[in-house]
Structures are given as C-alpha cells and as structure tokens.
Amino acid sequence: MSIPKVAAIIVASGRGVRAGEHPEGAKQFRRIGGRPILAWTLERLLRHPKVGSVVLVANPDDAERTAATIAPFDDLGEVRVVDGGATRQASVRNGLLALSEYPVDTVLIHDAVRPFLSADLIDRVAAATGPDVGALPVVPVADTLKKGEDGHVIATVDRSGLYAAQTPQGFPYRAIMDAHEKAANRADVEFTDDASIAEWAGLAVAMVEGEPDNVKLTSARDLELADRRLKGESRMIDVRTGNGYDVHKLVDGDHVILCGVRIPHDQTLSGHSDADVGFHALTDALLATCGAGDIGDHFPPSDPQWKGAASHIFLTAARDIVAKKGGRIMNADISLICEAPKIAPHRGTMRKAIADCLAIDMERVSVKATTNETIGFVGRKEGIAAIATASVVYGETL
C-alpha cells in the first residue's frame, strides 16, 4: 500500500489585533519561550516524518520577519511562502493553489498561533483523512453554555454533542481545493473554518480526538501563559539522556565505515549491515530516551533485508521515532575506541553526517576517539567499539 503524500499549510497572515500592539509585530511573531510563536509551529510540522511539504501563507508586509523566522529551519526542508489574502478563507485558498504542482494526497491546514500541537495529534488527523473524508480535531465543551441578549441570560444551552474545533484540519487535497474554489464565488455564505467549507460542499468530516493543550493564542494573557509554560514556570521540561554501546569484530578487508564515513584501512568491520559501530551506538542511545527498545528490535540481524544495509537507515528511523514521541534532539556525542584507523582527519565529515541524519546543527554533535592502550580486544586490533550519548527534550520543546 502506498503512503499518502501529506502537505501542511500554515496560515500566518493575520494581524492578531486582540493581542495588542507590540514592537515584534503581528501576533505570530511575538516571542514565547525565546522564539516567535510561528517558529514553534513551523518546527513541529517540519520535523514530523509524515509531512513532506510545508506552505506558509504570510502577509507580504511581514516579508522580513517571515524570512528571519524560517531561516533557522533550512536544514529541515523547504518552506514555500505565499501571500495571504484579504480573509483567512482567501489565504487558505492561496496556500492550496500553491500546492497544485506537488503530488499531494492529504493537506493539513493549521493556524500559526497554535504552537502546542503534538506529533500524536498530527498522526491522528492524517490517519483519519481519506479520499472522501476530512478530519477535524475536537475537544468536548466542558463549560455550561448560556445564551444572552441585552446583557442578560435568556437560556441555558444543552452542551451534549457540542465540541470546540481545533487545527490542524485534514482534507483530501483535491476535494478541499474544489470546495474552496466554489466557496470563493459565494459572498453570501459565511465560513468560520475549513471544515465548515468542506461540510457546505458535501465532504464528510470525521471528528478525531483533539488536545486541551492545543490552544489558539489569542489574547496578550494567552501569550504570557504560553511564554511561562515554555520557560518551565508552570511545569518541568522533560529532559532525557540515553546511552548506547556497540562493538564489531575486525576482519581482513580494505575499509571501515564509521559514523557514516568510509575510511580506507587494511581491515574491515564484520556485521550483518555495514557494521557502523558509531551509528549503531547512537541509534540505541536515541531509542533509549523514549523506551523504544534497541536497534535489534527494529532491525533484527535475522532479517535478510538488512544484510549490508547502510546504517544511516537505522539512525534516521530512530530520529523519526523520537520525533513521533514528541522529542527534540538536543545533543549527540560518540566516542570511538580503536587503535586504528586515525579518526581525527575524518571527525568533521563524521559530525556533518550525523547532523544531517538527525536534522540538527553540527555544534550539537561531538565525535571523539581514543585508543585502548594496546589492552584487550581493541588493543589487539580485533575490533572497534563505540559509546554514544544522546540528549532529547520531550513535551515542552516543540
């Protein structure tokens, strides 16, 4: 079965007047936890393994701020920026049109000022979206609802069966594009979100479980609480450290592969895959941060499909597992233990290979090497070992 191609549209062209005037500009550029709100939202979608394309709908007056916000994420994938329209509906339509040249099955439409969406929520919405059905994350209405008139309560509204709608809202791309095209010609009909356009056009919309934390930041008070949350004033940030160890036997050969780099040598490492001890140890370290077992659980050596496989496959898979669990990789450190070959000439290339696999900056990657002072199997040049440590932040950092 083919995997649906998922794209995301982030709507970030509003002015956010209810949050008040601010030197940082529109609400989506206001800083919480040290970064613009839009940056938190962008990173969550860009890091999700199912999202292949991101379109950012922005106000052309914010071009400089938009470019500065996107720049730190260049390594995570392309963000296509298109101009917003006079209304949110027009802005979403512009974003949908920008995807017309991409092979997209599913599109997720998300508010820029909902920075606390989780990887699990993205998964639920994407999974519930099909060729003939959209998906809407909702949370049940908990408060008693009152109907008022002239400043007085005139009725209590039955809240059973009532839900508050959230984003991202998922749709089959062609169906929601057609719905928006039809809606653009109906000035007499008011739409409050994309799900209402889908309903009006006859597209079924399934409800999926939303998240109370996935709040839309509207007022200055909302921004203040979000800032305190990200700074850890309301709860602890979940920082986890994982360790990994691997060793492979040296046999006759003409090269070794260490941390993704092929190094000429008079021996080679023996293993079911390419026997890259550095990548194997780091894979285990990452999996350890979220209790996801070890490399053998996911890529058993008894499975012939992994024979001779490049170990960046394993490391990338561990990265995606961490991202799906809501983790952000902060640091990766590998110590290689061998008498030969010399590691120093290749350290920079190794660090870059690791950074590319993990989609993090090179300054967050360390590769070190030491000998075993001719002691033991390493000292006798019978094998090479690696120890890896990874630090990952879960939950609070998006």
UniProtKB/TrEMBL annotation:
<comment type="similarity">
    <text>Belongs to the IspD/TarI cytidylyltransferase family. IspD subfamily.</text>
</comment>
<dbReference type="GO" id="GO:0050518">
    <property type="term" value="F:2-C-methyl-D-erythritol 4-phosphate cytidylyltransferase activity"/>
</dbReference>
<dbReference type="InterPro" id="IPR003526">
    <property type="entry name" value="MECDP_synthase"/>
</dbReference>
<feature type="binding site">
    <location>
        <position position="248"/>
    </location>
    <ligand>
        <name>a divalent metal cation</name>
    </ligand>
</feature>
<keyword id="KW-0456">Lyase</keyword>
<feature type="region of interest" description="2-C-methyl-D-erythritol 4-phosphate cytidylyltransferase">
    <location>
        <begin position="1"/>
        <end position="239"/>
    </location>
</feature>
<dbReference type="GO" id="GO:0046872">
    <property type="term" value="F:metal ion binding"/>
</dbReference>
<feature type="binding site">
    <location>
        <begin position="246"/>
        <end position="248"/>
    </location>
    <ligand>
        <name>4-CDP-2-C-methyl-D-erythritol 2-phosphate</name>
    </ligand>
</feature>
<keyword id="KW-0414">Isoprene biosynthesis</keyword>
<feature type="domain" description="2-C-methyl-D-erythritol 2,4-cyclodiphosphate synthase">
    <location>
        <begin position="240"/>
        <end position="392"/>
    </location>
</feature>
<feature type="site" description="Transition state stabilizer">
    <location>
        <position position="18"/>
    </location>
</feature>
<dbReference type="InterPro" id="IPR026596">
    <property type="entry name" value="IspD/F"/>
</dbReference>
<feature type="binding site">
    <location>
        <begin position="370"/>
        <end position="373"/>
    </location>
    <ligand>
        <name>4-CDP-2-C-methyl-D-erythritol 2-phosphate</name>
    </ligand>
</feature>
<dbReference type="GO" id="GO:0019288">
    <property type="term" value="P:isopentenyl diphosphate biosynthetic process, methylerythritol 4-phosphate pathway"/>
</dbReference>
<dbReference type="InterPro" id="IPR018294">
    <property type="entry name" value="ISPD_synthase_CS"/>
</dbReference>
<dbReference type="Pfam" id="PF01128">
    <property type="entry name" value="IspD"/>
</dbReference>
<keyword id="KW-0548">Nucleotidyltransferase</keyword>
<dbReference type="InterPro" id="IPR036571">
    <property type="entry name" value="MECDP_synthase_sf"/>
</dbReference>
<keyword id="KW-0511">Multifunctional enzyme</keyword>
<dbReference type="GO" id="GO:0008685">
    <property type="term" value="F:2-C-methyl-D-erythritol 2,4-cyclodiphosphate synthase activity"/>
</dbReference>
<feature type="binding site">
    <location>
        <position position="380"/>
    </location>
    <ligand>
        <name>4-CDP-2-C-methyl-D-erythritol 2-phosphate</name>
    </ligand>
</feature>
<feature type="region of interest" description="2-C-methyl-D-erythritol 2,4-cyclodiphosphate synthase">
    <location>
        <begin position="240"/>
        <end position="398"/>
    </location>
</feature>
<comment type="pathway">
    <text>Isoprenoid biosynthesis; isopentenyl diphosphate biosynthesis via DXP pathway; isopentenyl diphosphate from 1-deoxy-D-xylulose 5-phosphate: step 2/6.</text>
</comment>
<feature type="site" description="Transition state stabilizer">
    <location>
        <position position="27"/>
    </location>
</feature>
<keyword id="KW-0808">Transferase</keyword>
<dbReference type="GO" id="GO:0016114">
    <property type="term" value="P:terpenoid biosynthetic process"/>
</dbReference>
<protein>
    <recommendedName>
        <fullName>Bifunctional enzyme IspD/IspF</fullName>
        <ecNumber>2.7.7.60</ecNumber>
        <ecNumber>4.6.1.12</ecNumber>
    </recommendedName>
</protein>
<comment type="pathway">
    <text>Isoprenoid biosynthesis; isopentenyl diphosphate biosynthesis via DXP pathway; isopentenyl diphosphate from 1-deoxy-D-xylulose 5-phosphate: step 4/6.</text>
</comment>
<dbReference type="InterPro" id="IPR029044">
    <property type="entry name" value="Nucleotide-diphossugar_trans"/>
</dbReference>
<feature type="binding site">
    <location>
        <begin position="294"/>
        <end position="296"/>
    </location>
    <ligand>
        <name>4-CDP-2-C-methyl-D-erythritol 2-phosphate</name>
    </ligand>
</feature>
<dbReference type="InterPro" id="IPR020555">
    <property type="entry name" value="MECDP_synthase_CS"/>
</dbReference>
<feature type="binding site">
    <location>
        <position position="377"/>
    </location>
    <ligand>
        <name>4-CDP-2-C-methyl-D-erythritol 2-phosphate</name>
    </ligand>
</feature>
<comment type="function">
    <text>Bifunctional enzyme that catalyzes the formation of 4-diphosphocytidyl-2-C-methyl-D-erythritol from CTP and 2-C-methyl-D-erythritol 4-phosphate (MEP) (IspD), and catalyzes the conversion of 4-diphosphocytidyl-2-C-methyl-D-erythritol 2-phosphate (CDP-ME2P) to 2-C-methyl-D-erythritol 2,4-cyclodiphosphate (ME-CPP) with a corresponding release of cytidine 5-monophosphate (CMP) (IspF).</text>
</comment>
<feature type="site" description="Transition state stabilizer">
    <location>
        <position position="371"/>
    </location>
</feature>
<dbReference type="Pfam" id="PF02542">
    <property type="entry name" value="YgbB"/>
</dbReference>
<dbReference type="InterPro" id="IPR001228">
    <property type="entry name" value="IspD"/>
</dbReference>
<keyword id="KW-0479">Metal-binding</keyword>
<feature type="site" description="Positions MEP for the nucleophilic attack">
    <location>
        <position position="159"/>
    </location>
</feature>
<feature type="binding site">
    <location>
        <position position="246"/>
    </location>
    <ligand>
        <name>a divalent metal cation</name>
    </ligand>
</feature>
<feature type="binding site">
    <location>
        <position position="280"/>
    </location>
    <ligand>
        <name>a divalent metal cation</name>
    </ligand>
</feature>
<dbReference type="InterPro" id="IPR034683">
    <property type="entry name" value="IspD/TarI"/>
</dbReference>
<comment type="similarity">
    <text>Belongs to the IspF family.</text>
</comment>
